Amino acid sequence: MRVAILVFLFCLSGCQGTGQIKTVQSGYYESAMPLYLSFDSTHHLITGYIEIHSDEPKDKFVCQLYFTGKIIPGDKIPIIFHQYSIDTTKSYTGWMLINSATEVTIKSDELLMPCSNLIDISNGEEVELKETRPYTKIAILKVSKQNLFKAPDKGSQLKSYVIQNDPLGIIKEEGEWLLIRYLRNEKIEAWLPKTSIW
Known about the structure:
Shape: globular
Number of domains: 2
Radius of gyration: 17 Å
Number of strands: 15
Number of helices: 0
């Protein structure tokens, strides 16, 4: 199975804008593509995740899109898409438009290769909130493998684990620990060390 990973970096500093800071609700958004979005109201940070699978049985392909940034005054947030794969690194520009607290539009300035056969947001893609979530941040696992824990304690290790690039919804932080849900199966809720995520 081939996997392409894209990281969206919103304009974190030096961006100019006018007007009030807009907010969005944390949750599961959907239209032509599914999207998990999280908003940290304290720091005006926004993070999210999109995952789309091909239906081709001979050439299974997964497109994973990660994004993070800071909401600035005004409606439009400049973004840079970074694609990381085994043999290449490429950047793309684009933006995110906050239409309302429950609706956003994401647009890239060009096709996101090689994900363009599964998702084309070069003309903009509007997504609406379907279900709220308690996430303060969406993150990905940076280590090759991480065991999960029943409590924020090394003595409570479970048999289950997550692997590198797995998508996680952060619910809360306690010291050096994070309470997470696994976004591919949100029934899985457990603790892991803060140092294991990007």
